[in-house]
Amino acid sequence: MSGLAILIPVALFMGLAGLAFFFWAMRNDQFEDLEGAAHRVLIDDDEKPDSDDREV
Amino acid sequence: MNATVALDDLEPVRQCEDSRFAVPTMRCAGCIAKIERGLGELPGVVTARVNFSTKQVAVSHTPELTEDKLKSAIAELGFEAQILADNPLSEDRGDTRRLLRALAVAGFGMMNIMLLSVSVWSGAVGVTKDLFHWLSALIAIPVIAYSGRPFFASAAMALRYLRTNMDVPISIGILLATGLSLYETATSGPHAYFDGVVMLIFFLLSGRVLDGMMRDRAREGISALLRQTAPGAMVIQPDGTTAWTKATDIRPNMVMQVAAGENLAADGVIIEGSSGFDFSMLTGESDPRLRQKGDDVLAGTTNLTAPVRVQVTAAGQDTSISDIARLMDEAGQHRSFHVRVADRAARYYAPAVHCLALLAFIGWMLAGAGVHQSLLIAVAVLIITCPCALGLAVPAAQVVASGALMRKGVLVKDGSALERLAEADRIILDKTGTVTMGQPVPDNLDQLSDDQKAVTLALAQSSRHPVSKAICTTLNAKNIAPADVEDLTETAGEGMSAIWNDQPVSLGRPEKGNASLATQLVIANEITHITLTDAIRPDAHAAIRELDELGLPASLLSGDSLEAVGPVARELGIIAQACARPEDKVHAIGRLSDQGHKVLMIGDGLNDGPALAAAHVSIAPGSASDVGQQAADAVFTSDSLMPVALSVKVARRTMQTVRQNFALAIGYNILAVPLALAGLVTPLIAAIAMSTSSLIVVGNALRLYGSAK
């Protein structure tokens, strides 16, 4: 029984954290361009190291 | 304007403007990098971000960097770009996002409550069970309050107008079950239905999210195709300079400088110059008309040959296009009478469910079970009959089908379009741009000598007349090099003329009038005629025959002259009506509807807009004007007409699957309702029954994945 006092809040917290992360991702348009994200990996950033810094 | 720009330059932080461009030709990571870097280096650009999925570029820039400059900057990078106005279709995108958030919350609640419920089902008793019920309540109540809003709102709306829809039994079921579960929890009763309620909300929301996503995806695809008729114009300022002005900011009495090849952004009168204008957007006729000083020109038409100055007489909502828009609005009104399949089912289903639950309550009261026990059984009936599978039955099938169609190049705007498409039993086709490609192709260029070809190309390549462009494309494809000509001039309505090897040469209007498109090439005194035809789409004949076999006889309804329509109708072997104005097309559709026919209209032009809106269901080719694309229920992007027949077939199969899904959902109810009426449904049984029936329905819908092959 005493384990439940810890485990249930932990489970709830993790669920809420996941939910909060999903909300954050939606607000920040993370799902707007799924195909583009796949292609962007291939872009070579070295040519212009200073101009392509993106805020994460 | 200019003064404020100079002031603004001094301030470090300025207001930015956002513009969007459609760049359909980007294909790879290299294109993304090239566009983003190329635009980023441009002075005045703050950020440039490519959205590869929608093939669009969003640019944040200073106000003095206008949209046309950005467009040419993208063109210099090697990409063809089109300016996108604020997309009128994307306004209700927020709806899906709200639903998706509600779905996420419901999913979170469902998983956590399930976690607690499983322990209760597996034998937790006493204090543990009460604690778990209380915890479930704690999670469930905010989740229900948040995620249930779409249903409560829609049910409240229906009840206000004394109607009932699918959301009324859902809302009543949710509220009653929640209230009863709270009472059970407070009195340490054996069963709480929180898991069932939240699961119900989760499954129902999945259906709605699917529905919304399908709509958004198709609309986004269509908005990427939309070509703005005229996002703005170069307006002559008081000081004699010209400045790019957006269409919405153009006012009467302004003077527009319209270059050859540009679309007009407003109605007006020509005050300087003369030129040929392409009225095909309005009339459907491909032959350009000559307009001189003092003549009226209309927004949406294209200036073909020479630059002109146009004094604006009407702009924005007052242009002649707005008449057509009004006609479209009126024509579109009656379409809203179409009742979607799910709502038609709800019309019978909702009262039946309510009566059943009420009867269960009364029956058990009479049997002497007590208020509490009877209420519990009534709620179990409501939950178990809640149209969980029904809510998924329609959208799941429609989403899978529209995805299959999208892979074949048909964008269906929403599920109701598929329902209406399946019911269509007549087809009306427009001619120009629908049955034909909408672009003339020269027939007899092969008969020309090499010199003649070279001269023709030299003359044609400097003109924006559709005939010249068609000749140019054909000759370029044959790798002909243009001849060296001097003194190249273009006379509006007459054609191009120049000097070649000291002989006068010209390409222009043929002397003898002819119904078909033609031009004549004159070298010295030798006259050669070049004829052009607007080719019928490949396999148009086969597509029309296939549609006929599907029970949809076709007829042609065109704004073009009888001479132009006749040959096409003969070749396709269908009946035709020529010289139809937009209102005639609407009347023709109205007559057929009065006879009980469900008309499928296929058209592309602005002049088809009202007819597309008036028809039971409508499809436009991807080359259509944006009015056509917005009025139509679906857009196909290929050159062939076959996708139309395919869409009808897929739509019919979809409705068949929807009916199967209904049968499955009802079959499940037939099994589950007696259990509920007998008072045997525990939360465990409700949970299993609900998820199994939903999975079966979704699985059945997935069979449509390959339906468009």
From TrEMBL, chain A:
Key word Membrane present: yes
Transmembrane as UniProt keyword: yes
InterPro entries per UniProt: Cyt_oxidase_maturation_cbb3
Positions of transmembrane segments: 6-25
Record's keyword terms, sorted: Membrane, Transmembrane, Transmembrane helix
Domain of life where this protein originates: Bacteria
Protein name as it appears in the record: Cytochrome oxidase maturation protein, cbb3-type
Native species: Parasphingorhabdus marina DSM 22363
Automatic annotation (TrEMBL), chain B:
CC terms in the record's Gene Ontology section: plasma membrane
Limits of the HMA domain: 17-82
Keyword Oxidoreductase in annotation: no
Entry annotated with the keyword Transferase: no
Subcellular location: Cell membrane
CDD domains (UniProt xref): HMA
Swiss-Prot/TrEMBL GO biological process terms: copper ion homeostasis
Swiss-Prot/TrEMBL keywords: ATP-binding, Cell membrane, Ion transport, Magnesium, Membrane, Metal-binding, Nucleotide-binding, Phosphoprotein, Translocase, Transmembrane, Transmembrane helix, Transport
GO molecular function, one term: ATP binding
InterPro entries: ATPase_P-typ_cyto_dom_N, ATPase_P-typ_P_site, ATPase_P-typ_TM_dom_sf, ATPase_P-typ_transduc_dom_A_sf, ATPase_P-type_domA, HAD-like_sf, HAD_sf, Heavy-metal-associated_CS
Transmembrane segments: 102-125, 131-148, 168-186, 192-210, 348-369, 375-401, 662-678, 684-705
Gene3D superfamilies linked: 3.30.70.100, Calcium-transporting ATPase, cytoplasmic domain N, Calcium-transporting ATPase, cytoplasmic transduction domain A, HAD superfamily/HAD-like
Signal sequence coordinates: none
Homology family: Belongs to the cation transport ATPase (P-type) (TC 3.A.3) family. Type IB subfamily.
Protein name: Cu2+-exporting ATPase
Organism: Parasphingorhabdus marina DSM 22363
